[in-house]
């Protein structure tokens, strides 16, 4: 079971500015906003280069430090490493939420460690922290249709039919973070992955 005395740093990846806010690549930051909304938390600018909100998951659960870097996706590592140092949190207590092309839209997978899978934000966090040993909430956005380049696909807003389902996906991602923080990764995986596999 996680230690409630130690807060979790929960980081949602994306690109800064309103022009990117609705992009598929920003779904991690959207999920962070959902977590903050649930606990009625407000974000403040932090000197590490991120917007930060502190509180408890669901308002009464484990201590969470929610963060959205102010940098572009491919240089997310600096703010994340700075926040870990500032709050004296080990990477083992870091949860990163990010978009995942290799997972179908409206699905979520949880894991600890491993490679970056071509995701530049995750790649930079591994480089900046010196370890891949952090938790990931991988939010499925699916592969682009036809021959559309992946780089274009992730930098476009969700389609209309996707936007209708998006609130549920963000809620599922927020649920996953709260489960990890309160019950641990294995229990969270059992619940999240089992639900995803039901017909």
From TrEMBL:
The keyword Glycoprotein does not apply. GO terms for cellular component: cytoplasm. Its main location: cytoplasm. The record marks 99 as: Stabilizes the basic form of H active site to accept a proton. TRNA binds at residues 20, 72, 74, 120. GO terms for biological process: protein quality control for misfolded or incompletely synthesized proteins; rescue of stalled ribosome. The active site is at residue 25. It is found in: Cytoplasm. It catalyses: an N-acyl-L-alpha-aminoacyl-tRNA + H2O = an N-acyl-L-amino acid + a tRNA + H(+). Monomer. The record marks 15 as: Discriminates between blocked and unblocked aminoacyl-tRNA. This is Peptidyl-tRNA hydrolase. Belongs to the PTH family. The gene is pth. It is an enzyme of class 3 (hydrolase). Its EC number is 3.1.1.29. Hydrolyzes ribosome-free peptidyl-tRNAs (with 1 or more amino acids incorporated), which drop off the ribosome during protein synthesis, or as a result of ribosome stalling. Catalyzes the release of premature peptidyl moieties from peptidyl-tRNA molecules trapped in stalled 50S ribosomal subunits, and thus maintains levels of free tRNAs and 50S ribosomes. CDD domains: PTH. It comes from the Bacteria. GO terms for molecular function: peptidyl-tRNA hydrolase activity; tRNA binding. Keywords: Cytoplasm, Hydrolase, RNA-binding, tRNA-binding.
